[in-house]
Design a protein that fits this description.
Layout: H1 14-31, H2 53-56, E1 59-67, H3 70-75, H4 77-82, E2 84-90, E3 95-100, H5 104-149
Length: about 150
């Protein structure tokens, strides 16, 4: 049976074509700036953003990086990024502000989660390789058996 498709036969299957169309459709939506799918309303009021003092001037850390409690997580925007915050004092303006920070404990937990995920993926793909190799070996031995029987 001859295919009228100019590309390899595997690419002409409907499932592969649908997956390609879905993938490239999502990529094009992301690239060409499709509207965000969120429930929040957009207002025409422009909020004035004031840069925190620790971005503009020298600062001294007065309270080390610590985990935010439930109230701080909900009410402080600086807790929203990492869940940890430190108190800083800007030297020129002598103003105390809170700055988001990355805790070494949090980093260590993230590292070990990543390591566990990679170990699990390694085990899964090792099992998949062994199963596929056994299947291919069985197909090869059946082919040899059929060739011997035909003699």
């Amino acid at each position: 049976m001859e295919s009228d498709c100019r590309i390899p036969v595997a690419c002409c299957r409907p499932r592969v074509l649908v997956l390609h169309a879905l993938f490239w459709g999502l990529v094009s939506l992301r690239v060409f700036g499709a509207p965000q799918w969120s429930s929040e309303e957009k207002t025409s009021v422009v909020k004035q953003l004031v840069a925190p003092c620790w971005l503009l001037e020298e600062f001294v850390v007065t309270t080390e990086c610590s985990q935010c409690n439930a109230f701080q997580s909900r009410s402080w925007s600086s807790c929203g990024l990492t869940g940890y915050v430190e108190k800083v004092n800007c030297t020129r303006s002598n103003k105390d502000e809170y700055k988001s920070c990355r805790s070494s404990v949090m980093e260590e937990h993230l590292f070990w989660k990543f390591e566990a995920a990679m170990l699990a993926l390694t085990a899964v793909f090792a099992v998949v390789v062994v199963i596929r190799q056994r299947w291919l070996d069985r197909l090869a031995s059946e082919k040899v058996r059929r060739q011997i029987e035909s003699i």
